[in-house]
Design brief:
Chain lengths: 194, 269
């Protein structure tokens, strides 16, 4: 199934869940959990139990707020934003950088509506592939390629294969991700999504 | 030179023309300071999720559709039933290992004799029959461990740990049922021959009683390896008591009563 096709199908399930159809929730969970799990498992200091906790908390928050989601097409980005925020909050509490009653706030479902058109997503992916291709040959490029392009190995497995610590792998991935985030922000500011 | 910071991000979010124009130019070239800020700072808006979605979809889609993670989804459903809290105490179902590392001897309470709990075997060659017995230990908030008798009561602050004895290796489904509700799947776990605490891939399994009140029933349903039927079928069979027609080798059942509202705040995790 193409990226576009799966996005459309997911959006249809989201609409059904917003109408309160119970089976739609398990279908959304089935379809999106692999991405949420891969995202949260990439946070090096979280152990397997903590990753499962973050995944659970992500879906509980998302499903509770789903009826208020303004734009069904924004669901996946909204869900992944929640997952990243939950993982960050968990990490910061673990490192005692954040009090237990403080947390990173999630994007509000009522305003989570600015999404690129589906076709633009395909173009964005081409841009990301180009940025990967332009990375200088070295450990960062190898790591990014293994994790994001091949997509078969976990951060831990990549660390073992490359003979480095998992934290080194996640730092490389985060650095690359920040580069992509900067590029997308620039494109947003250029009015591409407006 | 100006770099991204909280104030700049706020201005970008509200679309202040000067800030937008400046950073449109500034971000046209890689900027370490801005990248560092973006890496550590959520948003703006859904940008983080959009970036992650893009990156996670770079890999070729798998040929097979992902299977529903029944255990994970059961935890989500459980979480949805709990009241929302200022910070979420995610279900403490897993990872209570710390207080149990010293647990050595527990007398097994035979919930039902093996001869009574065996289900019909479906005749698959090469797989032996499996007898299963369970006992339950309550871990109190102060770490004290207390063996529970069938029909006994526990505090809603306790975490239950299952200890089993299996005559063969296999797998098990763990269900719980509140009062007259439908049995709810809590997880699928490997069984090893001998006496062990119930463990999942992430360690010892604990069942948090927080938020529970009243009668509670636990079932550990054992099967030969690779013969686990769909959990929905097992749930249906537990509900209607027709497990004899299923390829089930062993069912153990444990009833208890949960004393709710004991008034202690949950430990945030």
């Amino acid at each position: 199934m193409s990226r576009l096709g799966s996005s459309r199908e997911l959006m249809e399930w989201v609409v059904r869940a917003m109408r309160g159809e119970a089976p739609a929730f398990s279908e959304i969970y089935r379809r999106t959990r692999p991405q949420v799990a891969r995202l949260t498992a990439g946070f090096a200091p979280l152990d397997a139990d903590e990753v499962e906790d973050v995944i659970q908390e992500t879906y509980v928050r998302a499903f509770r707020a789903l009826p208020r989601l303004k734009e069904p097409a924004a669901f996946e980005a909204w869900l992944l934003s929640i997952a990243r925020n939950r993982a960050r909050t968990r990490l910061e509490r673990k490192g005692q950088k954040r009090r237990m009653d403080e947390e990173i706030s999630d994007p509000q479902p009522e305003t989570a509506s600015v999404v690129p058109e589906a076709l633009q997503l395909e173009r964005d992916m081409a841009v990301v592939r180009q940025l990967i291709a332009e990375l200088p040959e070295g450990e960062e490029k190898k790591t990014v390629y293994l994790f994001y392009v091949e997509g078969q190995l976990s951060a831990r497995e990549i660390a073992e294969q490359l003979g480095v610590g998992k934290s080194a792998v996640t730092m490389r991935l985060e650095r690359f991700r920040a580069r992509i985030k900067q590029e997308l922000l620039r494109r947003v500011l250029a009015g591409r999504w407006e | 030179m100006r770099h991204l910071d909280t104030e700049a991000l706020r201005a970008l979010t509200t679309g202040e023309p000067e800030t937008v124009a400046y950073f449109r130019e500034h971000l046209a070239h890689p900027c370490e300071a801005c990248m560092d800020f973006l890496a550590k700072t959520p948003g703006p808006g859904l940008l983080d999720g959009q970036v992650d979605a893009l990156l996670l979809h770079l890999a070729p889609a798998r040929q097979e559709a992902p299977r529903l993670d029944e255990v994970g989804y059961a935890r989500v459903r459980r979480g949805l039933r709990e009241p929302a809290r200022p910070w979420s105490r995610v279900a403490a179902a897993l990872a209570v290992a710390a207080g149990l590392a010293g647990l050595v001897v527990l007398t097994r309470a035979q919930v039902r004799p093996p001869s009574e709990v065996k289900g019909a075997w479906d005749g698959v060659k090469g797989v032996g029959t499996l007898a299963l017995e369970t006992s339950v230990v309550a871990r109190e908030p102060d770490g004290h461990l207390r063996r529970m008798d069938p029909g006994g009561s526990a505090s809603d602050q306790d975490v239950l740990v299952l200890r089993y004895h299996a005559t063969e290796a296999g797998e098990a489904l763990l269900f719980q049922r509140r009062a007259d509700a439908e049995p709810e799947l809590l997880g699928r776990f490997p069984l090893s021959a001998g006496t062990h605490e119930l463990e999942g891939p992430q360690g010892l399994v604990g069942i948090s009683l927080e938020g529970e009140s009243g009668p509670l029933t636990l079932w550990l349903v054992g099967f030969p390896s690779a013969q686990v039927p769909p959990p929905e079928e097992v749930r249906e069979a537990l509900t209607h008591g027709d497990m004899g027609e299923r390829p089930v080798l062993a069912i153990t059942r444990f009833d208890l009563h949960v004393r709710g509202g004991t008034g202690q705040n949950p430990s945030p995790r």
